[in-house]
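Internal ticket #5521
Category: modeling
Description: The requester needs a full-assembly model to guide mutagenesis choices. All entity lines are attached below as received. Residue total reported by intake: 335.
Assigned to: D.W.
Attached entities:
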Amino acid sequence: MKAATLRALNQARDEKRAVILATWLDTGEERLIGLDDSVEEDIAAAVSEAFAHDRSTTIEIDGRDLFLNVFNPPLRLIVVGAVHVAQPLATLAKTVGYDVTIVDPRRAWSDPARFPGIRVLSTWPDDALKTLDLDHRTAVATLTHDPKIDDPALHVALRSPVFYVGSLGSRRTHAKRLDRLHESGFSTAETGRINAPIGLDIGARTHAEIALSVMAQVVAAQHGKL
Amino acid sequence: MAEGSMNEDVLRTAQSWHDAGQRVALATVTATWGSSPRPVGSLLAVREDGTFEGSVSGGCIEGAVIGEAQGAMSDGKVRNLEFSVSNETAWEVGLTCGGTVRVFVEPLS
C-alpha cells in the first residue's frame, strides 16, 4: 500500500467517513472508494453490499482477486438516562467499539464527571435525538423508566431506522408505556420494536450485570440474532 | 464493526512508524473457511525489526506472517499466504480452531 493511501484512509476514519480499501491481491495496487463514489459496473453490487453489511470480502474480476476491506464509522449507542446502569453500559459499549452518547436533561445525573471520556448531553432526549441523525447503525436504550424522559426519546427512535430500541422497566411499567404510545398514535408494529424488559435474560441483578445484558442484546440485534 | 476500531489503531500505528522513517508492512486477512479467530479484514502491522501490532489469527500464525512481512519489506513484493489446519493437527501447527485463513502481505511504500 502507498503511504498516501494509508494517510487518506486514516483521515477518513478520523472524519467518520465510510470507505472501502480496494486492493488487487496479485499486484497490491489499491484505491479508496467512498460511500458516494461512483464505481465500475462490475464491482458496484459487491461494493454496496460490503458497505451495507459491514462485510469485507474478496471478489473475482476477470480472473483477478480484488479485496474489499470495509471501514465503516463506528456503530453508535445512544443511552437515554445518565442513571447508574448507564455508567458500566457506556464503558462496555466503548470496549466493544461503539461510539457512545448519553442524554439526560437532569443536570445532577448528567454531570460529565460521572462519565469520564463519554459524550454527555444535558438536553431533552427528543431534541437531542433529532440532532443525532439516527440511522441504521445506531442503537437507542432508554434507562430512566420516567415517562417524561423516556417517552419523548421513544417517539423519535420508533420513527427512525435505528437497528435497536430497548427500554428499561418491569413488564408492568412497559405495559403502561405501550398504552401511552398507542394513545399517541403509534401502531403495535412500531411499538413491537421495543425490547422490554431490556436486555438478554442472563439473570442480571447488579448495575454492571444489567449493563452487560443490554450490551449483549444490542450486539445480538446488530448481528440479526434477536 | 468492533474490529474496525481495533484496525484503526493498527493503521495509525503503521502510519506513525512510517512517519518516523521505519520500514513497515501490513498483513490482512482476506478470506477464512471454517472457524477462524479473526474476521476477514483484520490487520497486522509489522515494523522491520519485527515489532508488530494487531493480529490475523489470535497468535497462532503471527510468527510466520511476521517473517513474510519482513521479506516483503526487503523485496518490495506482495504475498498471499494460506494457513490450513485440521482439528487433529491444530495443536502442532498452531491454528487451534482448525480453520483455514488466507493472509495478504504488502510493504508500505
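Resolution: model delivered.
Comment from assignee: The mean pLDDT of chain A is 95.
Ticket closed.
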